[in-house]
C-alpha cells in the first residue's frame, strides 16, 4: 500500500487466513446480525421518539422550534461526534463485543433518564448521554460484521443491519404515538413517583427498556478473527500516522465519499425529524394518526430500500459494473432532488405521504452499499476509525445540522410554523444536489481502488 510502512503483526489467532475469508457464514454470524440489527433498531427508537413528542415538550417547556431542534440535533450530536473517533480507535485495537455491550446498556439508561427530566436542560444532558453511548455502535458493528461474513455476503449482511434505522424510526412513530395517546388516559397516581410523570415522560421510560435485554443478548456473541481488505496484503496493526497516510493517498475517494454521504444523510434525518410536524400542522392530523401512518411508511419503504440496494448492485455487477457499490448511491442522490422539490407542491395529506414514502425508499437505497464500499476499500485495522469519521461528518450534517436548518428557515425565513414543509423541501433538495456532485467524484476514486486491487 502506497505510503504505508510495515507495522507489527497482530497475534495469529486474531487474523483469518485469506483462504478462509469466503467460507459460508456460521450460525453465530447470523445471530450476530440479528442482535446488532435489534440494537440498531432500538437505538433509533431511542433517538427519534423525541420527534413525536414535539407538541408536549413545546407546551411544557415553552420552547421555539429552534430550541426543540437543539434537543433533536445538538444535544445528541455533540456527544456523538466527540466519542465517535474514540470508539472508532477502540474498535480497531480492542474487543468489539465488550464495546457494544457497554454502549447498549449506557444509551438505554440515558433514554430512560430522559423520562425523568424536569427541565429543558436536564433533558438536554440526558440526550447527550444517549448520543455519547450510541457513538460506539457504527464503528464496532461495521468492523465486526465485515470480519464475520464472506466478502460476497457483506452487502447483504449490511442491508439487514441497516434496516435498523427504518424499523426503529417506524416503531418510534407508531408505538410512540400510540403510547403517548394511551398514557394520557392512564391513572398512575397510586404508583410511587410514576404518578407524577407526564405522558411524554412515560414514553421515554418505556423506550429505554428493550436495550437492557439486547445488552444481555450480546453476551452470546463471539469476537471474530480479523480479515483483509482490498489492496491489503498483511493485516497489520496501524499507527495513527499510517492511518492518516492512507486517507491522504486515497483522498479522491475518502474526501468525496464523506462529503457526499454527509449531504445525503441531511435528507435521511430531515424528513423523519420534521415530516410528522408538517403533516400535523399543515393538514391537522393527530399525533397518533401520523405516528401510525407515517411510521408504517418509513418502516416498510425504508426497509425495502435498504434491502433492494444489494440486489440492484448485484444486477449491475453481473453486467460489468464493478463500481456498483458507489454507482447506486450517486443515482439515489439524483433521484432525491425531484422528490424533495415535490414536497413543496403537496396540497393534500395523501400527496405529502406519497412524497415522504418515495423519499424514504430513495434515501435508504444506498446505505448498505456505501457502508460496504467504505469497509471493503479500507484496511482492516483502520475500519473502525474510517467508520467513526463517517459517523462524525454524517452526524454533524445529519443529526446536528439537518433539523436546525429546517427550523431556522421556518422560524426566520418563512416565519410561519405551517411552512415547515417548504423549509423541509428546500433543505432536502439542495442537500441531495450537493450529495450527487460529491458522490460522482467519489465514484472515480473508488474505481481507482478497484483497479489497484485488480493488479
Automatic annotation (TrEMBL):
GO terms for molecular function: transmembrane transporter activity. Residues 1-21 are annotated as: Disordered. PROSITE patterns: MFS. GO terms for cellular component: membrane. InterPro entries: MFS (IPR011701), MFS_dom (IPR020846), MFS_spinster-like (IPR044770), MFS_trans_sf (IPR036259). Pfam families: MFS_1 (PF07690). It is found in: Membrane. It is a multi-pass membrane protein. The chain crosses the membrane at residues 29-50, 70-87, 99-118, 124-145, 157-180, 200-219, 253-274, 294-316, 328-346, 352-377, 389-409, 421-439. Keywords: Membrane, Transmembrane, Transmembrane helix, Transport. It comes from the Bacteria. Residues 32-443 form the Major facilitator superfamily (MFS) profile domain. Its main location: membrane. This is MFS transporter.
Amino acid at each position: 500500500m502506497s505510503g504505508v510502512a510495515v507495522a507489527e503483526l497482530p497475534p495469529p489467532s486474531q487474523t483469518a487466513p485469506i483462504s478462509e475469508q469466503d467460507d459460508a457464514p456460521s450460525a453465530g454470524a447470523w445471530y450476530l446480525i440479528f442482535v446488532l440489527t435489534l440494537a440498531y433498531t432500538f437505538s433509533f427508537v431511542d433517538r427519534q421518539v423525541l420527534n413525536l413528542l414535539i407538541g408536549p415538550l413545546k407546551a411544557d417547556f415553552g420552547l421555539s422550534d429552534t430550541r426543540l431542534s437543539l434537543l433533536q440535533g445538538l444535544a445528541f450530536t455533540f456527544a456523538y461526534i466527540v466519542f465517535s473517533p474514540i470508539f472508532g480507535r477502540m474498535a480497531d485495537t480492542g474487543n468489539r463485543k465488550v464495546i457494544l455491550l457497554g454502549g447498549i446498556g449506557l444509551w438505554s439508561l440515558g433514554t430512560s433518564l430522559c423520562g425523568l427530566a424536569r427541565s429543558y436542560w436536564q433533558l438536554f444532558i440526558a440526550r447527550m448521554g444517549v448520543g455519547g453511548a450510541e457513538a460506539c455502535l457504527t464503528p464496532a458493528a461495521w468492523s465486526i460484521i465485515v470480519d464475520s461474513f464472506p466478502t460476497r455476503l457483506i452487502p447483504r449482511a449490511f442491508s439487514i443491519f441497516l434496516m435498523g434505522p427504518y424499523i426503529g424510526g417506524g416503531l418510534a412513530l407508531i408505538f410512540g404515538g400510540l403510547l403517548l395517546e394511551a398514557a394520557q388516559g392512564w391513572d398512575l397516581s397510586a404508583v410511587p413517583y410514576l404518578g407524577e410523570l407526564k405522558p411524554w415522560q412515560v414514553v421515554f421510560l418505556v423506550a429505554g427498556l428493550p436495550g437492557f435485554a439486547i445488552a444481555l443478548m450480546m453476551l452470546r456473541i463471539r469476537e471474530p478473527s480479523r480479515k483483509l481488505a482490498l489492496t491489503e496484503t498483511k493485516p497489520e496493526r496501524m499507527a495513527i500516522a499510517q492511518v492518516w497516510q492512507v486517507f491522504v493517498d486515497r483522498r479522491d475517494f475518502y474526501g468525496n465519499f464523506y462529503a457526499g454521504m454527509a449531504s445525503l444523510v441531511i435528507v435521511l434525518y430531515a424528513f423523519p425529524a420534521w415530516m410528522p410536524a408538517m403533516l400535523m400542522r399543515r393538514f391537522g392530523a393527530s399525533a397518533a394518526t401520523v405516528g401510525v401512518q407515517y411510521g408504517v411508511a418509513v418502516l416498510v419503504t425504508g426497509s425495502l430500500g435498504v434491502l433492494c440496494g444489494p440486489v440492484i448492485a448485484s444486477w449491475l455487477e453481473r453486467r460489468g459494473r464493478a463500481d456498483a457499490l458507489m454507482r447506486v448511491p450517486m443515482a439515489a442522490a439524483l433521484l432525491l432532488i425531484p422528490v424533495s422539490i415535490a414536497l413543496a407542491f403537496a396540497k393534500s395529506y395523501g400527496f405529502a405521504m406519497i412524497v415522504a414514502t418515495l423519499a424514504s425508499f430513495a434515501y435508504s437505497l444506498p446505505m448498505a452499499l456505501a457502508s460496504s464500499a467504505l469497509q471493503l476499500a479500507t484496511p482492516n485495522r483502520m475500519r473502525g476509525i474510517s467508520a467513526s469519521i463517517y459517523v462524525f461528518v454524517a452526524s454533524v450534517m445529519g443529526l446536528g445540522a439537518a433539523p436546525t436548518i429546517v427550523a431556522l428557515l421556518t422560524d426566520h425565513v418563512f416565519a410561519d410554523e405551517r411552512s415547515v414543509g417548504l423549509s423541509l423541501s428546500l433543505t432536502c433538495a439542495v442537500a441531495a444536489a450537493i450529495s450527487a456532485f460529491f458522490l460522482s467524484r467519489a465514484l472515480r476514486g473508488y474505481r481507482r481502488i478497484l483497479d489497484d486491487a485488480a493488479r
